[in-house]
Write a structure and sequence with these properties.
Elements lengths: L1 H23 L3 E4 L2 E7 L5 E9 L5 E10 L3 E2 L11 E4 L4 E8 L9 E11 L6 E13 L1
Parallel strand pairs: 2-9
Antiparallel strand pairs: 1-3, 3-7, 4-6, 4-8, 5-7, 8-9
């Protein structure tokens, strides 16, 4: 009998966690999630971006974290409207993260990437609602 009660409590806990995870997802839309600069000549400058949108009915706190970056990428380029660090997006509000790719001779022929992690949290509880990854790709020739 004790095993059945424990098993039922465990199953109920799993169901509650699954329901809360489902309800909390899809508050942040990243378009596009992968930005490919393609192959660019050494010494050139190319700018591309991605848009972050709060798709929920409540404000969210967005935190941008740079995970990895080659030297040929430059964050917060002209045209970026996403502030650095953590910031709040109102329901339906968007910002754009623009990156510059400036291929240099030292990385010629190499496939380069830059990875950002974007976390959306509840401003009141601090609970993580969603995490997305943004990938920027480029190659110098």
């Amino acid at each position: 009998m004790r095993f059945c009660v424990v098993a039922l409590v465990a199953l109920a806990s799993i169901a509650v966690l699954a329901a809360s995870s489902t309800a909390a997802s899809n508050v942040l839309k990243v378009t596009p999630g992968t930005v490919n600069f393609g192959t660019k000549p050494v010494g050139s400058s190319t700018f591309k971006g991605t848009t972050l949108t709060n798709t929920s009915d409540e404000p969210i706190v967005v935190t941008l974290g740079l995970v990895r970056s080659w030297d040929d990428f430059a964050g917060g380029a002209v045209g970026s409207t996403c502030p650095g660090g953590s910031f709040t997006l109102a329901p339906g509000e968007s910002c754009t993260l623009v990156e510059a790719f400036r291929p240099s001779e030292g990385f010629e022929g190499l496939k380069q990437d830059q990875i950002w992690v974007v976390t959306a949290t509840d401003p009141e509880s601090g609970a993580i609602l969603e995490t997305e990854e943004i990938l920027f790709l480029g190659r110098a020739r």
